[in-house]
Amino acid sequence: MPFTAAAASGTQRSLSSSRLHLRDSVVTLPTSSTSSTTTTAAPSIASRSLSASPPDSPLSGGAPEVIGDKLLGHVRTNGFERPFGRDQVISWLGHGISAVCFYVAAIWLMVLDDTPRTHSIRSLTSVALFIHIPALVLLLMAWISCERIDPEESLPNGWFGIKLGGKRWMKARYCAVCRKTVPGLDHHCTWLQTCIGVSNYAQFFTIACAGTVQFICQALYASFSLLWLHIPVDAAGQQLTEVKILLLVCLFISVPCTITYFVLLGFHTLLFFLGYGTYDWMLRRRKRQRELAKAKSNAAKSNGAETTPGDGAASMPSPQSHSSSFGSPSDFTGADPSIAIGQMTSL
């Protein structure tokens, strides 16, 4: 009997190991023109059938666990799902601290008596608040909507009636970070900790626009207040040191955020005119890099052949023809869906 129990236990472990190897082979199957559909479908099935996984799942680097024929993997629903990412928390703190410093300093200056000495800075504060408040409200609305939506689902009526159409948004791709298939996947944004697809790209682009306006307004207001208009004095004749500190903190955060938002908005505006998304842009960029590497390799081989002594004249290298760095949209329909998409950011 002890021998029989041990044999049964060994057989059970062997079967579990076989199922694990089978599941691993499906997930990591190399992509080819005939197997790209299989590779894409396997993570999609796992993501739909399982809603959560322990932290020691194989995809997270820990010990594997198999239940039946399903390989467990945590499927991230939206941006507000825990655990929060490092970049996500940094973005919350950056927006929140800079906005608080801006409003406290602005209100502090607005309550000063309207004298010839304070008239200029009060007027500047009024203009800054008039621009900043609508931008911040729009940013918060888009941010909350973008974070709360499950990108795997679709919005039939769009966001405030904004609907995205075209081939770019009809193609579903698999995100290796969220471990699910997202319709119209553009990229995975680490600052929002969610996928950006057809259901929340309008909100994402609104965040880029409103964030650019917010931080430009904060940076210009803090700069003009500190360097041009000078901080006025209070009734006791003392300079408002607290206001200076608030404006310096606001300026310190706003300048790098302005540059980041400006680059982000410019990049996605360029993609809009090009007619494709971040995912396709990265595929085309990688294709161009491979073509350049191949061209350099061919040139090196040709130069080596020219310098090799022979009984005849040195052979001239044949001209190499290469396709455009952008190619055609059909070049990427069979691309590996797991190619770097889990590490793509919103820039």
UniProtKB/TrEMBL annotation:
A single GO BP: protein targeting to membrane
Enzyme superclass (EC): transferase
Reaction it catalyzes: L-cysteinyl-[protein] + hexadecanoyl-CoA = S-hexadecanoyl-L-cysteinyl-[protein] + CoA
Coarse class of the protein's main subcellular location: membrane
Membrane spanning stretches: 89-111, 123-144, 204-231, 243-276
Domain Palmitoyltransferase DHHC, chain residue ranges per copy: 171-282
Subcellular location: Membrane
Signal peptide per UniProt: none
Record key words, sorted: Acyltransferase, Membrane, Transferase, Transmembrane, Transmembrane helix
Gene Ontology MF: a single term: protein-cysteine S-palmitoyltransferase activity
EC number: 2.3.1.225
GO cellular component: endoplasmic reticulum; Golgi apparatus; membrane
Region (Disordered): 28-60, 294-347
Bilayer topology: Multi-pass membrane protein
Biased composition (Low complexity): 315-330
Family per similarity comment: Belongs to the DHHC palmitoyltransferase family.
Domain free text: The DHHC domain is required for palmitoyltransferase activity.
Protein name: Palmitoyltransferase
